[in-house]
Amino acid sequence: MSELKVRTFLTSLRRVIRQVMLYPVGHPAVQEALRTAEFDLEDMVGDIGDMTLIVHDSTLYRDRALLPHASLEFEGVIRDMEKRAIESVTLLSPTSRDDIYDFAAFITGISDDLPADGTVRLNERTYSDMELDSSPLANLRRSYASSVDAVRTATKSLARGEGFEVTTVVHAVEGLADSAMASPGAALLLST
Predict the structure, then answer these.
(1) Among 13, 50, 80, 102, which lies 20 to 30 A Cα-Cα from 110?
(2) Looking at the structure, do residues 53 and 107 belong to the same domain, yes or no?
(3) 163 and 76 co-located in one domain
(4) Which of 3, 171, 173, 149 is nearest to 76 (CA)?
């Protein structure tokens, strides 16, 4: 399965999260966002039956495989999930629309109710660093995502007129440079 389907679902989930923050559950905008998310989730999980998305060190994995583009694109959702101590999300097909709503409300902190229908399960499966993809390219992608996140955070702080810790950005960029020097072949693949 392609990362694109995961990103499509996460886009729908992010829309549900935004609507949940603005309107009550019965509002047409919330219902439309839920319908779209339900469709995209079914398209993503499809014939597999279930899938686990793992959040680890501000990075997203699908069943132990690194999702580098999704990790960058959905860093806000990932950060919100980490704040709520969500380490993994197991999605079962067919998924209950109520569970998608409860999941979005839980991520935002609007509700502390966990999805009750059992089709969206939180922290059911967790993995250690050793079990996740640790290839040289995956390590380089993680370093890249970390440095982009650090620079993005610094840029947002500057735009708001706030200060930021420059050492965080320096360490992230140094980590990327070290990773690139340790595996030049992976760095070449990442740059193309």
Answers:
(1) 50
(2) yes
(3) no
(4) 149
